[in-house]
Amino acid sequence: MKVTWIDGDLLFVVTSSTTSNKKIADPKEVIVQTYTYSLNQLESAKAGKVSQGDFFLGDKPNCMDCPLSRNSGNGKCYTHKYLQFSGFLSSLRSTKDLSELTEAKRKKIVEMCEGRYVRFGTYGEPSLMPIDLVESMVEASKCHTGYTHQWRKPWCQPYSKHFMASAHSDQEASESFSLGFRAFIVKKDGEESNAVQCPASKEAGYVSTCSKCKLCSGRRVKTEKHIKINEH
User: Fold this and answer.
1) Structural domain for 136, as ranges
2) Cβ contacts of residue 132 below 8 Å, gap of 6+?
3) Residue 25 shares a structural domain with residue 136
């Protein structure tokens, strides 16, 4: 199932399906994932042949000033790989509903989330989604994950209840905590960190999945611990 809507220069997509990524969930489990694209990316996908580099260069509206984005960062986001890129193109090319977010769409999205794991921000900045919709999706879900690089922005503070701050050091994690966020620290292999190792990581031996672990559910879980993982 797929629900889409346009808001300004952004296209939002919410899907329910299985995933082939065993780190995320069991291959037979139906999960909900959210994507945020720019209209530039939508137009380039529908126009025909587009290079991977040019596609991700159009990510400023939906990835903003993320340090891993193509437009203003180093372009090393884990989503900037061919399999993900081809999947994004396929989804965009099949998107037909370009209308606004309606109450009927909201209801359908919440129904999709009932008792399921919700993965916010599979691509794009998840805090661009309406906060009230995020809250309804979280309440309906069995668990969720979400990460934002916008945690320093005042407008992003309401999302601290639901999303993890994307950090790159213990110092950044402490800064984000002072703003109400728990942090998910992406660090270089060999760098020290006092955070808890992500159980769904290679370093931990993939002893769990994101769907089962629940540690990256913002303040939904009763812990103040930060989580860490090596760059991948």
Assistant:
1) 1-145
2) none
3) yes
